[in-house]
Structures are given as structure tokens and as C-alpha cells.
Structure prediction request, 246 residues.
Amino acid sequence: MHGRPTHRLLVLPLLVAVVAACSGTASGPGGGSSPSPAPASIETPETAVDVIRAFTPLFDGLGPLNPDMIGQGSFWESAPVDAGSPPKAWKVTFTVGWGDCQAGCIDRHTWMWQVSRDGTTLFLEEAGTPLTPEMLAGLAASSTAQGVGGAVSAGPVCPVERPGDPSCAPRMVDGAALLLQGKDGTEVARFTTDGSGLFRIPLDAGDYMLAPQPVEGLMGTAAPMPFTVGQGAETWLDVPYDTGIR
Prediction:
């Protein structure tokens, strides 16, 4: 994800009840099991979308694409990848648009996954105009859960920083293992990011520590991050790794 703020902690209000609960340990898409129980079979566009929503707060406020609506800038699409009934997999795309969307939106940012019938996910791509910090904060504020969510990225990407250059924006980290500890130091959950770098773990209210683990190919591991989950709120964490590029 590009254009996101770093080194910040944002507490988000709860808008509706938690959709899916988490128990025990968890790993992210591409890391094995889902952070919340997936349906036995993903047979509808909506259930495919819910699988991805379980991995991030960013998409809670997005509704389905309405082809009859003029000016709809942000939406999700979920299309079967084959003609089976139900299909073997769904391609799920989340789109955020801004800037004169009545005329088709000047800027767009998209994320895309494939969700198999058994709930297995594969991150495909992230593309488009880099998100501004304000856009990212607005998406995160649509959270409908209680717990922690965020994004894992690595920088710098360029030897010489060029502010505003999308090619030098921090890159999202694939395969970052995040260890979550309770106040007494016991392990509460684990999550392994896919190529989107996004994560989400439902939690009870209380104090926690996020302990990022080393990632092969990155010189610096993000420092442990203490945080608090309020009742009916979701905490957003930006988790910064160091590429070692200077």
C-alpha cells in the first residue's frame, strides 16, 4: 500500500458488532488458516468478500459496485473465475476512487485477491494512485470490529528519498510474522501477512504488545509496539521494517 502514514496509532470507533470472532492463534492470507473461521464453502460473492474483510479494517465501509449509480467512487467487486456452480474461486477487488467521481474519478487505488472455494486466499496485486494519509485514515475509520488492524511496510525503497515519488514509497511486506502478546507476556495470536501487508486480529479490550518477527531480506525488524484496545474500538498500527537501503 502506498502513501500511508507511518509510526502512528489510531483508535477507531465501533460502528456495528464484530462480524467474525477470532480464537487461538491465527495466520494471515497465504499463511495457512484464516484469522477467523471461514465458511465451509465459499459459494457467493458476498462470502468471498467477507473472507478478505477479515484481514483488514480498510474495507468495512465499502459496498458492492452498483452499475446504475453515478459517482460511486469506492466499492467491491467479486466475480467467479470459472463457470462452475459454485465456482472453484472468486476474484475479489476493492476499489477506492477520489477526485470528481461524478465524472468517473480522477484517481483510483485497487487491491485484488483470489478466494478459493475452501477459503484459501491468494493476494494478486495492489495498483493505482498512491493513497494519501487522509484517504487511508478515512478507510480505517470505517472499521466495524473490536481489536487491532494495520499494515506492515518496509523502507526506504530508494537510496535518495524523493518525497511524493510513488516509486520511492514504502513497499508492503509479504511474509511478516506478527506475534501478539497479552499484558502478562503470553502469546495471544499470530498473523502472517500476504503481499498486501495488511492484518487484522479481533481482540478483547485490554493492553497488548505486537512483536514483529524478522523477515528474510530486510535489515531491520520493526520494534515491539505496545497498544491498547478499547471497548468497542479497533486500533490501527503501522508496522515499519527497514530495508537497509541507504
Remarks:
- The mean pLDDT is 85.
